[in-house]
Amino acid sequence: MEMSQYLEVFIEESKENLQTCNEQLLELEKSPDNLTIVNEIFRAAHTLKGMSATMGYEDLANLTHKMENVLDGIRNEKIFVSPEILDVVFKSVDDLEEMVLSIANGGDGKKDVTEVVTLLQAIENGESIPSSQSPAEKETAAAVSDKKDAAIKYEAFEQTVIEQSYEQGMHCFELSVSLREDCLLKAARVYMVFEVLEKIGEVIKSVPTVDKLEEEQFDQTFTVTIVTTESSTDIEKKVMKVSEVERVNVSEITPEIIQSQNTVHKVVEQKPDGKAVNTSVEEKPVKESKSSKESTRSTSSNKTIRVNIERLDILMNLFEELVIDRGRLEQISRDLDNPELNDTVERMTRISGDLQNIILNMRMVPVETVFNRFPRMVRQLARDLNKKINVEIIGAETELDRTVIDEIGDPLVHLIRNAIDHGIEKPEMRLKNGKAEEGTVKLIAYHSGNHVFIELEDDGAGINKQRVLEKAIQKGIVSEETASTLSDRQISELILASGFSTAEQISDISGRGVGLDVVKATIESLGGSITIDSTEGQGSLFSIQLPLTLSIISVMLVEIEKEKYAVPLSSIIETAIVKKDDIMKTHNQKVIDFRGKVVPLVFLEDVFEVPKESIEEEFYSTVIVRKGEKMAGLVVDSFIGQQEIVLKSLGNYLTDVFAISGATILGDGQVALIVDCNALIK
C-alpha cells in the first residue's frame, strides 16, 4: 500500500497525540492518583503506536509500546507515580517528538533511545531508577566532562541577533576559556574575562550560565559567545592578559555554521539542557470539556476536514482580487447611476462580505495552539533555575489569523523565558520579600475591537528603572536631557531598544536585552505593538496588540493635493476640522488642544513631499490618530470616506519608505499608499 499519501495526516495526528501526552502528564504530576488522566495518556500513546506501526516506523512504535507498558502498570496500580517515573515518561515523549519531527523533515524517524528504553524497562520490572538531574546540573556536568568544546546550540532569537550582526559587518566568535588548575578565585577571573569582552563587543551567550559561573559551579572551562568588530587574534590576546587564564580557543560562528548544526526546521526550540523539542504550531480543533469529550468523539470526527494552509492562502489571494474588482464595480455603478446595476452591485457586495467573513474565519486558529506548549516549557525552566512557578492561561480559545499565529510563537517563548529567568525571584528571596514562595506567570488573550491582545504578567521583581535608565544613557540610546522627561512606561520600554543589555542579565535562558528588540520588530512587522508596565518589587506586564487579520483592512481614504492616502481605522480616534487660529506652537512644533490634551500636528504634504498647488486654507482637515497613550493630528486636504481595502506589500525595492506600510488598488484603478501611523507618532 502506498503510504506517502497518508504521511501528512500521520504527522499532524502524531503531533496532536504527543501534545495530549504532554498536557495530561502535567496534570498527572499535580494529581498522581487520578487514573482518568492516565487513561487519557494511555489512549493517546496507544493511538500513536498503532499509526506508527501501520506506517512502518518501527522505532517509533517500539518506544511508544515501552511507554505504554509503564502507563498500563500505573492504571492497573502495579506502578505508583513518582517524580522520577514522570521524568522518564517526559523524556520518552521528548524522544518521540524528535522522531516525528525527523519524519516531518523527510527523515526516517530513527533515533538511539537505548537509555530511555532501559529506564522504562526498569520501571516496568519494578526496579528502582536513579533520581534524575535537573537540566542545569546536566549542563554543568556536560561542561565539566566535555573538554572538546562541543558546539553551542542557539535559540531562534540568538540566531537572528548573529545574522543581523553579520549584516552590519560584525563578527561572532565562540570563546572556550580554560583557567589554570590552581586558580583559587574562579568567579573573579570569570568577571575579569567578561569585563574585557564587554569593552570590545556584546556577549550574547555563556555556557554554563552566568549564575553558575558566579557560584563557581563549573570545573576550569567555560564558553562565551560574543559579537564584535575585533579580530579573533586580538580577542585571544586581550583575554590571555587576564591572570590565571591558561588557554583561550577562539572559533568564528557564521549563520551558515549555525544552520548546518541545526539540521531541524526553525520551529525546533532549543531547551536549556541541549535537547531539541518540537514547538511547531499545529492547527487543531478547539478542545472540548472533559465531560463532553467522550460523547462527542465519534460524531465530531466526521465533521472536520484538514485543509493545507497553502490552499487557504491561494483562496485568500483570489478573494483579495475580488475585493479590488468589487471596488471597481462600485465606482462604475456610482458613475452610471443605473438602478438595476446598483441593485446587482449591492447584492454582490453583501454576498462577498459574507464570503469574506467565512474565509477569514477558516484561517482563524485558537491561540491555544501556541499557549499549549508553554506549561511544559515553564516546568523545565523552573526546575533548571530551582524556582517554583505556577502558570495561568486565560482566554486560550481566543482566535487569531494563522499567519499571525505562526509568527507570534517565538516572541512569546522569549518573553516567557525572560519573565521566568529575570522576573520571578527564587523562593527564598520571595519569602524574604513577603511574597508567596511560588511565583505566578499569567498568559492572557482577549479580543478588543479589531485587535487581539496577548498579555504576559508576572508577580516577580519588576524592572529596575534606575538601572535601565543609566544603561540606556551609557549606551547612547537616550540623552540625559530626554531621560529626565520619560515616563515610567517609556523607561521600561527602553529594554526593547536595539543593543540594550546589562552584564548581569546575560544568561543561557534569556537576557533583558539581547533578543527583546527582535521581539518588538517581529510584533511590529505583523502590524502590532508591544507595551510594558512594571512596578519594581511587584512584577511586570507585557501587553501585545495584534490585528485580527493582515490582508484586508478598513481605512479612511484622504486626499493630499491630487494624491490619495489610506489611514487604518484601527489607529483613528476621530476626524476634526481645525481653525488656523487654534494652532499653537511649542518647542518649534505645531500643536492643537484636543479635548484637554496637547496633540502635535503632522502635515502629511510635508512628510511625503507632495508638491503644493493650492493656497493655504483657514481650516485644516485633521485625522486624530493614537498609538498607546501617544496621539498626533494628521493634516490632510480632504476626507474621501471609509473603505475596505486589500493591503499589498511595496516589494523588496521599497522596504525603507518612511511612514508607508503598503499600498492598495482603489476602485478607479488608482494606487493609494497606506499610512503607517505608528511611525509618524514615534
The CATH topology of the largest domain is given as Heat Shock Protein 90
The rounded Rg comes to 29 Å
Helix coverage percent: 40-55%
| Strand content bin | 15-25%
Q: Order of strands across the widest beta sheet?
A: 16-20-21-19-18-17
Largest sheet: 6 strands, mixed
Shape: globular
Given this structure, which CATH class of the largest domain is correct? Alpha Beta
Distance between the termini: 61 Å
Summarize it.
The protein is of the alpha+beta class. Helix 17 (402-423) runs antiparallel to helix 22 (516-525).
Describe what you observe in this structure:
44% of the residues lie in helices and 23% in strands. The chain has 5 domains: 4-132, Up-down Bundle (Four Helix Bundle (Hemerythrin (Met), subunit A)), CATH 1.20.120; 135-277, Alpha-Beta Plaits (2-Layer Sandwich); 307-365; 373-547, Heat Shock Protein 90 (2-Layer Sandwich), CATH 3.30.565; 552-681, CheA-289, Domain 4 (OB fold (Dihydrolipoamide Acetyltransferase, E2P)), CATH 2.40.50. The protein contains 24 helices and 24 strands. The longest helix has 28 residues, at 309-336.
